[in-house]
Amino acid sequence: MLLFHPMDFLIFIAFGLSLWAQFRVKGTFNRFADVPASSGLTGAEAARRMLDENGLTNVPVEHIPGTLTDHYDPISRVVRLSDPVYMGNSISAISVACHEVGHAVQHKVSYPMLVARHRIFPVVNLVSGVAPLMLLAGFILQAANLILLGILFFSAAVAFQLITLPVEFNASSRAKTMMVKMGFIRNNEESGVNKVLGAAALTYVAAALISVLELVKYVMIFTNTREE
User: Which residues cross the membrane (predicted)?
Assistant: First the structure.
């Protein structure tokens, strides 16, 4: 029962989609990293201007080593940009930089889905590592209560990933709007921005899909076990 389940085929397909999405992110980023933005701004400069425009003059823009390690830290309230984004003046650089600023803006205005993600994070951080162990032990010992508790814990992690989707899409939407409004890009550059941010969003979609399918699988196994 634990070795194979009909849902495993769908999970395998979703996993393949996830791998493809990761390759696409890197490929799309690298492609548009060679296309200079007409504004000539670096990612760091674009991020700084967008932060200031939104009244976030107290939020610093810091450099962080690596590639595609960019993120907004809601605890320290810092936008951290990777090597090619911080110093680059490409379509990829300013797209990613402004996307991260989008999260800072969400934080400022208390965007509901971001608030929900922040509130659920401590719970997810606590139970996500325990859930697989509970499920495994529950199925091995045929302990229904343990399986059910594992499913509930795993559901919290799935909810976190589902909440992440609107957070990421909204951050990209804010970024694109501000990039156009502030003249960071021209009309003929919007397509490149959409491709860079769209590829990144696909990774979150794939991850959420895998988690949802795994949750459905566990629920189906639990249901079948109860009926036996």
Answer: 6-23, 120-141, 147-171, 192-213
Q: pLDDT band for position 63 (50/70/90)? A: very high
Is residue 42 within 8 Å of residue 48, measured between CB atoms? Answer: no
Helix intervals (H) in the chain: 7-33, 43-53, 83-86, 91-109, 112-127, 131-141, 144-181, 190-227
Determine the Cα–Cα distance for residues 45 and 23; give it in Å rounded to an integer: 28
pTM, rounded to two decimals: 0.88
First-residue to last-residue Cα distance in the chain: 13
pLDDT of residue 220: 85
The pLDDT assigned to 228 comes to: 53
- What are the CA-CA distances from residue 40 to residues 86, 94, 181, 215, 224 (Å)? 13, 10, 16, 46, 60
The backbone torsions φ and ψ at residue 79, rounded to the nearest 5 degrees and listed phi first, read -95, 120
The neighbour count for residue 77, using CB atoms within 10 Å, is 14
Q: Is 45 among the residues known to form the active site? A: no
The residue from 45, 100, 168, 214 that is catalytic is 100
- Among the ranges given (46-55, 88-97, 123-132), the one the predictor scored with the smallest mean pLDDT: 123-132
Cα separation values, 37 from 65, 82, 88, 89, 173, Å: 22, 18, 10, 6, 19
